[in-house]
């Protein structure tokens, strides 16, 4: 089955992972900007990272006929440095019209601090001014419910934002409802050790239905599995769910959500093959 991984950090993966994903049916991925494993020292460090995301990762994905999309921001961890964050936010518009840039993300909260909230709100303002979509990280370190509640409240307070253009990631059993009830999209992150397992994701689809829901692997620096979405497909099949429902979660929904971005120049897999054969 063709699928899209809507949240995966390919900068932290080797080229062989692109090949494996392509062999497993992945046709596209979206890579939000995040932490580099260390705090960057200057705005130029971020500019170079954004060049890597918008130029080199697209090329690396293309070697395996995968389509790579990305998002720009300073992540919640480094947002504790308000001065640097403001410099990065001022620089982001340089990249918003680059091919494949879908919006602002992954912004959010890490330890639910005041500085993180200040920078989260300034990112929301940037997104509203440039009419960008938003991808959100919800915390795992401190209280996830409290952090998600704070994020949802801040989003709802900004009347300029269209909730159908916001994806809130890393939802779990205790946070999914408040995200969906406000009309946002929700992403379940499948991790081998924490966050959500494929079977728990299937449980949540059985409880809440398939609308505005996606699954992703995150695939970052820690123990994570870039092929977690195929594991989810297998878990859905084991429970007897129809292929059309599985496809909606892993392919149709990401296409529907991303299509709201002006830079989602996606070529569906059959058309991509036809182009190569022409
Ligand atoms: Zn992430």
What is the rounded Rg? 17 Å
Q: CATH superfamily name?
A: Metal-dependent hydrolases
Derived structural class: alpha/beta
Termini, distance in Å? Answer: 24 Å
Shape: globular
| Order of strands across the main sheet | 1-2-3-4-5-6-7-8
CATH topology (fold) name: TIM Barrel
Count up the helices: 10
| Amount of beta strand | 15-25%
Give a count of the beta strands, DSSP E runs of length 2 or more. Answer: 8
How are helices and strands ordered from N to C? Answer: EHEHEHEHEHEHEHEHHH
Bound ligands: zinc ion
Throw out a few tags for this protein.
278 residues, alpha/beta, TIM Barrel, 10 helices, binds zinc ion
Q: What does the model show?
A:
It is a single chain. With 278 residues, the protein is of the alpha/beta class. The chain has a single domain, classed as Alpha-Beta Barrel (TIM Barrel). Helices cover 44% and strands 15% of the residues. It contains ten helices and eight strands. It has helices at 15-23, 43-62, 82-91, 114-130, 144-157, 176-181, 198-208, 228-238, 243-258, 269-277, and strands at 3-5, 26-32, 67-72, 101-108, 133-137, 166-169, 185-189, 213-216. The protein has an eight-stranded parallel β-sheet with strand order 1-2-3-4-5-6-7-8. Helix 6 (176-181) links the parallel strand 6 (166-169) and strand 7. Helix 3 packs parallel to helix 4 (114-130) and helix 7 (198-208) crosses helix 8 (228-238). The longest helix has 20 residues, at 43-62. The radius of gyration is 17 Å and the shape is globular. The protein starts with a strand and ends with a helix. The model has no long low-confidence stretch (mean pLDDT 95). Bound molecules: zinc ion. Zinc ion binds at residues 7, 9, 32, 34, 106, 137, 218, 220.
